[in-house]
Design brief:
Blueprint (H helix, E strand, L loop, with lengths): L13 E7 L7 H12 L3 E5 L2 H4 L8 E5 L2 E5 L4 E7 L5 E9 L5 H15 L3 E10 L9 E5 L2 H6 L3 E2 L8 H11 L4 E9 L8 H15 L8 H17 L2 H18 L6 H14 L56
Parallel strand pairs: 1-6, 1-7, 7-10, 8-9
Antiparallel strand pairs: 2-5, 3-4, 5-6, 8-10
């Protein structure tokens, strides 16, 4: 059993997790958890033993100098906790690390052990995949779960995906078998500009997380970073006529696919988010009254000539231009 010393009883805790690697296109998911940790000044209370889960020839440790003293940072997964203040305070348990190299079942069991000891009510796992989506349009974010009841009550997709999966999919299923409600939020990152960071995709994940667990997240400079990122990609695309033509094709396909809901649910959701941000009575996004842990530890590639091979980057994303529902791939692995 995991014994946690120095962590008080948490208020309505939700665990939010993201892992660098296969499930983190553009570092969008890990960037979202890092943003939460930074804005709310998260305090690390646990770290998994790197020797148990990582191949150091794949994820190498780093050496750095601290006042002239050489120190080593080992690749691992760390857990921190943040308190969201306001009229209805609640806590988030943030899990941020690297997809493990080995012993995935033990890894998930250890994460679930922390969730059990902390009284976590729900686990939200963030991921990002490469997709046929234009950088000029809103980032598609899908919410999926393996729990049919949760899918109905929270307006999510029940995953039907079959195929290769990453630690996001394994942790999702581990939560389901342990009886812990779990949701995965997936952002689609343009495959023709996959280099990290991608602040626009990170922002989209945080907006969807706000809606899912009904909190307000301080965004800081992220919206401006997202605008600057899009302008930068615009400029790069304008310098290559082939890329520009390909982006236009994706835009037309996306606009056609989105047209039926352009004046319906999508606009309603954005307007509700706008009202929540302006409502002074809404739950505050400001940090709590400070520390409450008693003991803490420390250039664009050219577009493909044919559809990308899904075996290289995980589940093949839906193609907006497709109109045949029977041929459409399943939503990403939860």
């Amino acid at each position: 059993m995991i014994e946690l010393e120095g962590v008080p009883e948490l208020i309505d805790p939700v665990m939010v997790a993201a892992f660098e690697g296969w499930n983190d296109a553009g570092d969008a998911a890990s960037g979202a958890v890092a943003h939460l940790d930074r804005e709310w000044k998260g305090e690390v209370f646990a770290a998994l033993d790197a020797e148990d889960y990582y191949d150091f020839q794949v994820n190498r440790p780093t050496v750095w100098l601290d006042n002239g003293v050489r120190k080593i940072t080992w690749p691992t997964t760390r857990l921190s906790v943040v308190r969201i203040g306001g009229a209805k305070p609640r806590d988030l348990v943030l899990v941020r690390g690297i997809e493990p190299s080995m012993r995935w079942r033990s890894f998930c069991n250890e994460i679930l052990g922390f969730a059990h000891e902390l009284g976590v009510e729900m686990v939200v796992i963030l991921g990002a995949l490469l997709g046929d989506t234009p950088h000029t349009r809103p980032v598609p974010v899908s919410g999926v779960t393996s729990d049919a009841d949760l899918a109905r009550t929270m307006d999510l997709e029940e995953t039907k995906y079959e195929g290769p999966t990453g630690i996001v999919g394994i942790l999702q299923e581990a939560c389901t078998h342990a009886g812990v409600p779990a949701v995965s939020l997936w952002a689609a990152v343009p495959h023709y500009v996959s280099q990290p960071p991608n602040p626009k995709a990170t922002l989209a994940l945080l907006n969807r997380l706000e809606d899912l667990i009904d909190i307000r997240i301080p965004l800081g400079e992220l919206p401006e970073d997202a605008r600057a990122w899009q302008l930068g990609v615009d400029q790069l695309a304008a310098e290559d006529s082939e890329v520009a033509e390909y982006v236009q094709t994706l835009e037309e396909a996306r606009d056609t696919a989105d047209l039926p809901e352009a004046s319906g649910d999508a606009i309603a959701r954005e307007f509700e988010r706008y009202l929540r941000r302006r409502d002074p009575a809404a739950p505050s996004a400001e940090p709590g009254d400070g520390s409450y842990l008693r003991d803490t530890s420390g250039g664009l590639p050219r577009p493909p000539k044919r559809k990308p091979d899904p075996s290289g980057e995980g589940p093949e994303p839906p193609t907006a231009a497709s109109s045949d529902e029977d041929d459409a791939p399943e939503p990403p692995e939860a």
